[in-house]
Design a protein that fits this description.
With 98 residues, this protein is an alpha/beta fold. The chain contains 4 helices and 4 strands. It has one domain: NAD(P)-binding Rossmann-like Domain (Rossmann fold, 3-Layer(aba) Sandwich), CATH 3.40.50.720.
């Protein structure tokens, strides 16, 4: 069993840098990910590259409504297991990061 089997992870800032590496690692370990990022072109390209295990949701992490929408996207895939934030604006109170 891979470390992320049956896991769905919301990764803010997931279209590039550490966030992108996190998304790739989750998928490599059997998980699913929602890339929550403003960078639409990069996010869509990464989601397309990684296939059905990944969805992109354009998200401004300074907007609680945008975060809620990204979480709803993830919940439509399967139960969210983890939310991983890679943004200076994302706090535990604002997007339930742990």
């Amino acid at each position: 069993m891979a470390r992320f089997d049956d896991a769905c992870v919301v990764v803010t800032g997931g279209a590039s840098g550490i966030g992108e590496a996190t998304v790739r690692g989750i998928v490599a370990e059997g998980g699913r990910a929602v890339i929550a990022d403003l960078q639409e072109e990069r996010g869509q390209a990464l989601a397309q590259e990684l296939g059905d295990a990944v969805r992109f949701h354009q998200t401004d992490v300074t907007s609680e409504d945008a975060i809620a929408s990204a979480v709803a996207t993830a919940e439509s895939v399967e139960k969210i297991s983890v939310q991983r934030c890679h943004s200076q604006y994302c706090t535990a109170q604002r997007c339930s990061c742990s």
